[in-house]
Amino acid sequence: MQRMIFILEFIFGAFLISMAQTKGVQFDETATVSKLDDYFLQYNMRRTDFPGWRIQVFVTTDRREMENTLSSFRSRFPGYGAKWILNDPYYQIRAGFFIDYAEAMRALTDIRRGFKSATLITDRIRREEAINL
Fold first, then answer.
1. What is the per-residue DSSP string for the chain?
2. What was the pLDDT predicted at 46?
3. pTM for this entry
């Protein structure tokens, strides 16, 4: 009996693989679906930013301390594109941009090994920033 189930599973798996490799699959969309697709395309082209997350690495009122921490962060984590922002009287170091929360949490865990005060914040991500990875 188990042998028969195995053979049937093998045949079914082979059938699924052959169906997945078939070329020339066409989808016919209705006019309504096409119109909605165009609407969402135009809507998203007008948007200049979208919600996401950044990692706030450090906050201080001392500019020299911020510059030293920023330099240290950039040397340890060159791929995150760290920048500083002045929200008077605080200098904030922010790094990266994430659309996916799980990816942001993985990066935060990695960064917290060297910067214990790092935290995840919500922010608006500019389209140009996301395109120019």
1. -HHHHHHHHHHHHHHHHHHHT---------HHHHHHHHHHHHHHHH--EEEEEEEEEEEES-HHHHHHHHHHHHHH-GGG--EEEEETTEEEEEEEEESSHHHHHHHHHHHHTT-TT-EEEEEEEEHHHHH--
2. 80
3. 0.64
